[in-house]
Structures are given as C-alpha cells and as structure tokens.
Description:
By secondary structure, this protein is α/β, with parallel strands linked by helices. It folds into two domains: 4-182, Rossmann fold (3-Layer(aba) Sandwich), CATH 3.40.50.1260; 195-395, 3-Layer(aba) Sandwich (Rossmann fold). It has 14 helices and 17 strands. The protein has helices spanning 6-12, 38-52, 77-86, 100-108, 131-144, 179-192, 208-218, 232-238, 253-265, 312-323, 344-355, 365-373, 388-395, 401-404, and strands spanning 18-22, 29-30, 33-34, 56-60, 91-93, 114-116, 150-153, 175-177, 199-203, 224-227, 269-271, 275-279, 288-292, 306-310, 327-331, 359-363, 383-384. Helix 8 (232-238) crosses helix 9 (253-265) and helix 10 runs parallel beside helix 11 (344-355). It starts with 5 loop residues before the first helix and ends with a helix. Bound molecules: adenosine-5'-diphosphate and magnesium ion (MG).
Amino acid sequence: MTAKTLESLLDEGVQGRSVLVRSDLNVPLADGAVTDDGRIRASLPVLERLAAAGAKVLVAAHLGRPKGEPVPEFSLAPVADRMGELSSVTVRRAEDLTGPSAREAADALGSGEVLLLENVRFDPRETSKDEGERQTLAGELAALTGPEGAFVNDAFGAVHRAHASVVDIAAELPAYQGDLVASELKVLERLTTSPERPYTVILGGSKVSDKLAVIENLLPKADTLLIGGGMVFTFLKAQGFGIGKSLVENDKLDTVSRFMDLAAEHDCRLVLPTDIVMASAFAPDAEREVLSVDALETGSHGADALGLDIGPKSAELFAQSIAASKTVFWNGPMGVFEMEAFSHGTRTVADALSKAEAFSVVGGGDSAAAVRTLGFDESGFGHISTGGGASLEYLEGKTLPGIQALGL
Ligand code: ADP
Ligand code: MG
C-alpha cells in the first residue's frame, strides 16, 4: 500500500462526497471556553480545502480523557463555536458520535459544510483493547459517510494511539494523510536524518522518565543537549549535589549518569544549568533566590527550598548555544512558566529560538502552549508541532500505529 495524500483525494474529486476527517482538536478549556486555539487553527486548512472542493466534511476528534462516557465538561461544543468564529465555512455540530443526532446531521449536511461529531472518547469502544469493539465503532463511523466515503487522518497528535478513529477506520474507508500529518512527518524526518549542524536539542519539562527514550535516541544525533526544567535535579543529584525539595526521580539516578557517559562517547555536549532559581514554596508569590548549582541548599530556606526555574546565567548560556545552531529542537519548559516569577528561563529560550536563523522546532503540548501564552509570534519558529506525545514517540524511534494504518 502506498501513502495517499490529501492532494490525491482532491484529484479524485470530492464534490458531494462525505469525507470523515480525524482532527486533533484537543485544546485547553477554562470555564467552558477555549484558552488556546492553536490546534483548531492548525486543523482548519484541511477542513476548508475539502469543503471548498465540495465535500461534506465530517470531523471526529477527542477532547480530554472522559473515560468512555459522556462528560459535559469535555463536550466539543465550545470547539465547534470557536471553529465557526475562525472560519467562514458553516460548522454544524452533532450531540453524539454515531447515534441519532450524528446520523441525522450527516444526512442533512450540505456540500461545502463541516459537521463536528461529539467527542470520540465518550464512546468506550474508541480506546478499547478489544479490536472487535473498535472495528464496530469504526464501521459505524464509516457508515456516516455513505457509499462514496473517504477518511483523512489529519490528527498528528493522535497517531501514536491505536484507537478506532485513528487506526481501525483506515481499514473501513479509503484512507489519506492530511497536510498536518504530512508536514509533521517531514519536519521530524529532518530532525532525525541528516540535520544541519550544529544541531542543538533542548529538553525540559517536569519528568525525566517521560523523556528518557528521547534523550537516548537524540544523544547520538545532536551536537549539544541542553537540559532544563524539573528534570535537571535528577541530573544534579546524580552528580552529588544537594537539591533541596526540588523535583527528583530517585530511581533514575543511574540512568542519567549513564547518559552523561553516553554523551561523551557520542561527542555530544550535555549541558546542565549552572544556576537555578530556588523558591521557598511552589507558589507564584514564593520568595526567590538565584543560587549556583553546587550551593542550592545554602539559601535562606536551606534544604527546604525547591528549584522552579533555570537561573539567568544558564538561560543566557542556552540562548547563546541556540544562536550558534543550524538546527534546534526544543521540548519541555525550562521552569514553571505558568507562574510569571518562574517563566524567565522558558521565555529566554523561546526568545532565542524565535530569533535564531536555525531551523527551529518546538515539540510538546506544554512547550507549544508556553510559546503562545508567553506572547511569542508563532511565525518566528520553523515549526511548532501540534502533536506532543506523537512527536516524542517518533523521536524515540517508535512505530506510530496511526501512520502505519495509512500505509506509510
Ligand atoms: P511538554 O508538554 O512540552 O512535553 P512537559 O509536560 O514535560 O512538557 O512539562 C511541562 C511542565 O513542566 C510544566 O507544567 C512546568 O510547570 C513543569 N516544570 C518545568 N520546570 C519545573 C520545575 N523545576 N519543577 C516542577 N515543574 C516544572
Ligand atoms: Mg506536557
């Protein structure tokens, strides 16, 4: 089977045909409103291209983790509203996924219109381990599109999941890859095969255990690996430094020590911060003190302090390294950027990336959100991945079931 692109579907012609698109519309919500519409904006082009070509566009997507039953707070209703505001295409909404509301709305849908089905994860069969259950749901989804239906997977953020609307549906309908999936794959390929050098990878975020496989896979490929965020402290503790009450994964001390040896073997410069912003508590108004990594427990709160951001010297050092690079991949905030007091490191790295001449890629849900909530212009970055977990799994060297299902 060869990979079929959206282009080839448009060439076949979609006028009057129903096309089911799996989109990634998993956006953050607060008080029933969308707080970051990045994924909606990223998803619209494919839907609009199909609508403009005369297709009846059905959209399946998930939101949050409702655990297989309808939960009002995870309804896609606010997403449908936002889509309608952002697009000139008519966006309709079904109150269920494959039930009476969806069937009626699908039948009534006009050419050039979009119908957003309700959260796929309200149905337990979506994520079922039982292939038969998933296939039944996939069959019901395919039935909504009628005899000439087609399936487009544009949800890069979900391709690492063996779910009904991602994998099983591709066996029910002629399947095509959306532009978003195609462009994400192209970017990730560029990061893993012959990146332009110097190649710098910046990793942060909260848990080192989430990133072990990425570190392992990218260490041999990168020239420089900069470490920030909460995972720093596992590295510092492994080197024998006191870290106070900072985040640490004690069962990973040996693993990170091994990474330091592995880096040396592969001629990769593994750089840890030299200074840290230590706080009296995990709170936006906590007392702060910048301390050198070999003296983190010597501040006014002693061993009770915790590190919530990389220090200004380290941030500057990281920025310089980014400026000197031709390729940069960044995943994971440098500190607790959600609190203004601890956002400096993340802001400095994002700023350096946005100004760098390098091909720059931001991966990871929180990192992409940080770029936007800190007010950076997305066009300053080479690519902001919409698929956090999926891009990380790709960079870990894993096979992605949703991509495999498309015959890629
Ligand atoms: P991404 O989604 O981009 O992959 P992660 O999910 O790994 O990123 O990590 C994001 C989280 O890490 C953020 O919510 C941030 O507050 C947290 N974080 C960063 N630095 C620290 C730190 N020093 N201590 C605790 N949490 C941290
Ligand atoms: Mg995250």
